[in-house]
Amino acid sequence: GSLYVSEYFSQSAQKLSFYSWYGNAKLFHFHVPEDTVLLRWLLQASRGKGPECTSMEITVHFRHGAPPVINPLGTRFPANATVRPSYNISITLSSAVQNTTFVNVTTPAAGDWFIAAHLPEAAGRIEVKGFSTPCPYMFQADMFVLRLTDMPVLEPGVPTPHTVVLPAKPLHVKVFVPKHASGMRFQLSSCVTSEQRACTVRVLLGSITLPQSFQRSLTCTGSINCSLALDSPPWEKWLQITVESLGTANASVSLEMLASFTVCRPGSTSSFLSFISLNQSQAGARPGAAGSTAPAAGEAPRNASGQRGSCLQSQPVVREDLDVVSVRYRLLNGPSVPVSSLSPTLLLLNLNTGMDSGGSLVVNLLLNKTSVSLANATVVACVSAASPVLSLNATRNCSTAFSQGYPLSVSTSSGEAMLIVLYPQTDDWFLSLQLLCPRGQGDCGSAEARVTVFAYLTPCFNDCGPYGQCSLLRRHGYLYAGCSCKAGWGGWSCTDDTKAQTVGAQNLATLLLTLSNLMFLPAIAVAVYRYYLVEASVYTYTMFFSTFYHACDQPGVAVMCIMDYDTLQYCDFLGSVVSIWVTILCMARVKKILKYVLFVLGTLLIAMSLQLDRRGVWNMMGPCLFALVIMVTAWVHHGAKRRHCYPSSWKRWVFYLLPGITLAFIAISVYAFMETNENYYYTHSIWHVLVACSVAFLLPPRDKHKKPWAWSQKLTCRYQICQNDREELYAVT
User: Fold this and answer.
1) Is residue 487 within 8 Å of residue 506, measured between CB atoms?
2) 130, 613 in Cβ contact below 8 A?
3) Which of 326, 477, 525, 663 is most buried, with most CB under 10 Å away?
4) What is the dihedral of CA 522, 524, 530, 532, to 10 degrees?
5) What is the model's pLDDT at position 302?
6) Which residues of the chain have pLDDT under 50?
7) Which pairs of positions does the record mark as disulfide bonds (predicted)?
8) Under CATH, what is the fold of the domain 503-698?
9) What's the pLDDT score for residue 18?
10) Which H helix or E strand runs over 455?
11) Phi, psi dihedral angles at 395 (to 5 degrees)
12) What DSSP element (H or E) covers 42?
């Protein structure tokens, strides 16, 4: 009997995120071994137990060969991108804290398999770290495979007898498809049961791939021959064949199988000569080299034209790796390739390294219209994986035995065509081109067109455009890219302008966020007038860096960065927290030497904590609370010493302190609970205005022995009257 081996693969759980772009989807990458007959996914989802955790629906996408191309937000893809919907399931976490789901795939395709999981669309609310505790939703994917260790091999052209022992135990065999196979014919004959009755079997050719599966099915009844022809089977791969008995439970089935291939021999001498000429030309600058390369380079087209009898013309292509998920394909015979009507021109685009599926494959065709001798002639092309399409006519629809390719065409009326394949599966990709002539033109066989081919792999198409940022994402050792859009733009490559901000709205947002910082000018004036020069310096620093940080932080075109973004952000955060720190300490009315020590020491500690965690809520709340404790202690001390409330003036409370405290609380509420991605530009501007106004109200009056800014104390003889600047504990009026 057959020997089955079970294997188990697991990856660590990941915390799920609400979806706003592809980086929010958590990716799992598995490798399915050859000869796998059953694949079972174990999907485990769980959530926290706190009151903030509610019912949630988790979407899980599957794909073979590359990460799944998903569109949970229903946005538009780039104009020339052909997208096929992903296969997905939903897992609901309602009252149960944990959910376990199984997904079975019989006869799965070997190679890379990817799972992507995410939560529903993000609400867009800006969460302040520490003010709210988000519910953790965890997801883990494990993989079980059942593998046949001794799968029988069909030898091409040799009839082989086999037996299906039980209907519950199907027969698995495999056959190797050679390179340049243009067709395959599978034949089943001599099918009888152990009871010498006519048998009924079902034959499945190929493996299951997701999101689309092109597994071919054939039902054979009786002892007559049963056959199936396949065009363009996958080159240099094992093709799995499964035979299931549909008869009685206890009867075994004997049958005979035959697999035969039609092999297409390419015209490849021209490729060899081009390769030789390339080597000689690059050997290059030595004497006599140029003269020896010229005949070889000129001989290649003549040799190619002499091979019109072959079934395809292969053009040599060099793969040039540029960077991570960045490849350029260079044609040795030049960017322009000859295309005839007798046989297709074939280009191999190698994407089988296992690290190429995380980008976008771009193929651009440009027809040289002067090279086409026939009017209304069309060059049809097909980009396909695993095997090329070798018969390019209108009825084939660019399909191979087990996959659907991507059609292209150029003509004298439309001379350019582009195709974008998002996350191309790991495989050998082929570009087939052939000239189609209008009916009634007899000289079609001698016609030739020249097409310029540009093909490359890029992390993000068009680098996500002006309103997006291309981010390189990583899952363990696997790298893939995604676009993070801004200014209301959306879509896979940030080309969807449905919710995009206009340039006027972008300018308005920039002006609001920057000019609202000018509300610090009254606070600076009040501080200078009352001799709080250190505080005024801090407010000036905060106003300057907050203005230019928000000018640099804008998502659209209205952007100006006077220095590095990270530096501007750090200085803005530092100035904001230090402004609150010095304001509250100034209100405490402690001795000058102690106040300045606290100023410097607090600023150093705030700088350290911001370096540790810039967005932590305690970086702001910690200094605020500590300064408030100092202020309350000082006020209690002053009140106890004077034996009345401090500050003692009711006007100070009614017209200054209470309005300032009210403005500060409103500002904190807006900052912590009201900001979203959509309203950020005006809610954060309100935060700037409220904080600046509260500072102007909260600053205490100047010392009584400090005279207003004036020149009356200066004498004409340039001597200055000195005064005793000693500390006094006086009542605040």
Assistant:
1) yes
2) no
3) 663
4) 160
5) 37
6) 269-271, 275, 280-308, 711-717, 721, 723-733
7) 460-470, 485-494
8) Rhopdopsin 7-helix transmembrane proteins (1.20.1070)
9) 92
10) strand 448-458
11) -85, -15
12) strand 36-47
Average pLDDT value for the chain: 83
Nearest to 517 by CA among 483, 484, 493, 540: 540
Question: Long-range contacts for 498-506 (Cβ within 8 Å, ≥24 apart)?
Answer: 498/75, 498/76, 500/467, 501/556, 503/556, 503/557, 503/558, 506/554, 506/555, 506/556, 506/557, 506/558
Say what the pLDDT of residue 299 is.
35
CB atoms closer than 10 angstroms to residue 174: 20
Structure token digits, residue 75: 């946005």
Cis peptide before 647 (omega within 30 of 0): yes
Give the right CATH number for 313-458 from 2.40.70.10, 2.60.120.680, 3.30.110.70, 3.40.50.790: 2.60.120.680
Residue 569 Cα distances to 537, 561, 563, 605, 619, angstroms: 19, 11, 10, 18, 14
CB 436 within 8 A of CB 393: yes
| Cβ 377 vs Cβ 436: under 8 Å | yes
**The Cα angle at residue 130 between residues 124 and 131, in degrees rounded to 5:** 65
* Sign of the torsion angle spanned by Cα atoms 728, 730, 732, 733: negative
At 707 the pLDDT is: 63
At 247, the amino acid letter reads: G
Among 702, 706, 683, 686, smallest CA distance to 694 is for 686
φ, ψ for residue 74, nearest 5 deg: 70, 30
Q: How many residues does the chain have?
A: 733
